[in-house]
């Protein structure tokens, strides 16, 4: 096999891999305190020593999209849902260090005990998709649905990739959280209860699931734009729709285009195109296989030796999978670098800084959800956990 071909760097991607505040991020603030320089050759050893000193008091969670330099210190790796479950299963750990993004750390805080502290090594590690639905925008949307006379027939549902405030909104309105693995099951549950769903915040996961897996037409979906009066929709459109999709998307998966798919097929007619359901509908329609991060990992593990795969998901994960399966030709679907820039803010200096602060008895960057909000969000999460 030829080994993993690195996509070309773009200036934006390289900039985003550096430090500094990002005005577009969910929590656009720098890490407080003295960060060790990235060039410090002792960083790996410092992380190892701090982790050893903290022992069972510490549990480190690492999302699949994290850098290799960070993921090697994770006690468990997984997607956001698996990591939240793992946090909940470790009541003895005093500190949960979450190498992921803000909404994931919030979910971990909601599912862990009041005594446990969830730490996010860089508070600027937000999620651009979660940022696309704020609590006040969603309140306005619900008021629009009420004014249009449809709210009574709508069940709100949110993807895990949303803030605790949005999960709490959904919990208060008898709705449910979903992940990319159980979106269809959650939608089935929703349609047993109501005639319509308000799907937050990822339009692509919502559209791809109802059209590909539930037989809906594209015309059954409408897109609510929070920046337009009434979401840019007429009362009739709201009444006729089966699903009201929020106008949000993932800035990483949204980059893959039909051109990328066609180019890969031109280069290698035998290639299998494997993408995440956060990709645009036309990309998903053109792909051979579609599934969650855990599905992608399994599909590549089970693939025939010698088979070729072009994968449309975050670059750190695709590169890691290519390195883990050198007997298969695994490439990245885009021509250029495509990291989750906010996820990449958690680097080795931030991890070392957070761990050494804990060793010193200081708990930095605690993510704490207000108890009332946490209780409402937990209802929506528990309904997901109870799905058949
Ligand atoms: S990959 Fe997309 S959805 Fe996931 S954390 Fe990054 S921006 Fe958010």
Automatic annotation (TrEMBL):
Predominant location: cytoplasm
Cofactor section: [4Fe-4S] cluster
UniProt-listed Gene3D superfamilies: NadA-like
Keywords per UniProt: 4Fe-4S, Cytoplasm, Iron, Iron-sulfur, Metal-binding, Pyridine nucleotide biosynthesis, Transferase
Signal sequence range: none
SUPFAM superfamilies membership: NadA-like
Positions of iminosuccinate binding: 63, 80, 159-161, 180, 276-278, 293
Root EC class: transferase
Pfam families referenced in this protein's UniProt entry, alphabetically: NadA
Family, as annotated: Belongs to the quinolinate synthase family. Type 3 subfamily.
Protein name in the entry: Quinolinate synthase
Organism: Salininema proteolyticum
């Amino acid at each position: 096999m030829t080994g993993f071909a690195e996509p070309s760097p773009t200036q934006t991607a390289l900039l985003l891999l550096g430090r500094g505040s990002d005005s577009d991020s969910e929590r656009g603030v720098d890490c407080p305190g003295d960060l060790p320089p990235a060039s410090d050759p002792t960083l790996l050893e410092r992380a190892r020593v701090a982790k050893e000193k903290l022992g069972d008091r510490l549990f480190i969670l690492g999302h699949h999209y994290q850098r290799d330099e960070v993921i090697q210190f994770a006690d468990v790796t997984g997607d956001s849902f698996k990591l939240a479950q793992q946090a909940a299963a470790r009541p003895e750990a005093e500190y949960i260090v979450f190498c992921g993004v803000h909404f994931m750390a919030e979910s971990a805080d909601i599912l862990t005990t009041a005594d446990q502290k969830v730490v996010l090594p860089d508070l600027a590690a937000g999620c651009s998709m979660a940022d696309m639905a704020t609590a006040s925008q969603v309140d306005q949307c619900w008021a629009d649905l009420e004014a249009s006379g449809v709210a009574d027939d709508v069940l709100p549902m949110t993807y895990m990739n949303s803030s605790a405030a949005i999960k709490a909104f959904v919990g208060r309105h008898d709705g449910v959280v979903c992940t990319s693995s159980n979106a269809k099951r959650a939608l089935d549950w929703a349609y047993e209860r109501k005639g319509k769903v308000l799907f937050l915040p990822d339009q692509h996961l919502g559209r791809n699931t109802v059209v590909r897996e539930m037989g809906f037409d594209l015309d059954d979906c409408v897109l609510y734009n929070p920046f337009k009066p009434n979401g840019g929709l007429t009362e009739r459109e709201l009444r006729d729709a089966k699903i009201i999709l929020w106008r949000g998307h993932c800035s990483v998966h949204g980059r893959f285009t039909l051109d990328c798919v066609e180019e890969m097929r031109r280069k290698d007619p035998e290639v299998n195109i494997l993408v995440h359901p956060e990709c645009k509908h036309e990309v998903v329609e053109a792909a051979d296989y579609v599934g969650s991060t855990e599905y992608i990992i399994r599909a590549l593990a089970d693939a025939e030796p010698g088979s070729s795969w072009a994968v449309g998901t975050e670059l750190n994960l695709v590169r890691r999978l290519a390195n883990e399966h050198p007997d298969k030709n695994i490439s990245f679907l885009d021509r250029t670098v495509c990291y989750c820039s906010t996820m990449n803010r958690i680097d080795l200096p931030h991890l070392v800084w957070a761990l050494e602060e804990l060793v010193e008895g200081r708990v930095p960057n605690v993510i704490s959800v207000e108890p009332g909000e946490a209780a409402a969000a937990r209802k929506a999460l528990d309904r997901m956990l109870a799905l058949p």
